[in-house]
Amino acid sequence: MTYEFWILLTGALVGGTCGMMGCFLILRKMAMLADAISHTVLLGLVLAFLISQSLNGGIMLVGAAAAGLFTTYLIQVLNAKGIQEDASIGVVFTTLFAIGVILISLFAQNVHLDVEHALMGEIAFIPWDTLTLPMFGEVPKSVVMLTAVLLLDLVVVLLLFKEFKLTSFDPGMAAAMGFPILLLHYVMMTLVSVTTVSAFDSVGAILVVAMLIAPGATAYLWTDRYLKMILLSVIIGVFDSIAGYYAAKWLDVSISGSMAVAAGLVFLLTWILSPRHGLMARFSVLRAGRG
């Protein structure tokens, strides 16, 4: 496998996995939770290092995932106590991220664990950090991790497809029918947290947030069907990654940044051209009404 292939595969895995999970955030009006988790995992990374005195990838992953879950739990608790969801996300996000930055300044100044490292992963380095798998040979660790997370997300979403659908569109009816709303919420947020953590160290928090929000928001403008939206979001996420890579190669710029820009441009074009929800469609309806 070539160097370019592994970068494209990593980008496609991030785009597809984040695109799928991002749909649920869009439908639940929790899009900014992606930004919150992608930043508060810094606290988990710092605490994992301080406890273990090691930068081992597995330990870092556990710490980051725990921070993501803790973020979700705190936001849910504040929201349940009557604080608006956006305010809850803002307070938890900024507080936990700031604590992580302070802990780095106090206890980890001489360690390769800084804000830039945590938030601006470099996808171009993916092919060099490998492990050996039977029948496959040398495979980048990030590809293995992202593939495992994609399979986990697929299995859980398929098993709880009906439950996630009902709780996303009508949580009141789901509660009346006896569905464990809170448990399903935490299962979903666990998947979002694990997906975010598995991707952000490789490709950077900015790209993760872009892929969690933009493909789902784009798909939402094209269809009103639940399953179709998820499938479209996955396809759009993969397309954004591939298009962004070749744009970065052509312009000689940041690969992750180019992928995020591609996701934004695709959303912008959809917002303008969407046959039902786009600006041109609305303009046509207004003209027809005036005529």
Automatic annotation (TrEMBL):
Keyword Transport: yes
Top-rank taxon, per record: Bacteria
Chief location category: membrane
Residues that span the membrane, as ranges: 6-27, 32-51, 57-75, 87-108, 143-161, 173-197, 203-222, 229-248, 254-273
Pfam families named among the record's database cross-references: ABC-3
UniProt KW keywords: Cell membrane, Membrane, Transmembrane, Transmembrane helix, Transport
A GO-annotated cellular component: ATP-binding cassette (ABC) transporter complex
Localization in the cell: Cell membrane
GO biological process: response to zinc ion; transmembrane transport
InterPro entries with a match to the protein in the record: ABC_BtuC-like (IPR037294), ABC_TroCD (IPR001626)
Gene3D superfamilies with a match to the protein in the record: ABC transporter involved in vitamin B12 uptake, BtuC
Membrane topology: Multi-pass membrane protein
Similarity section: Belongs to the ABC-3 integral membrane protein family.
Name of the protein this chain belongs to: Iron ABC transporter
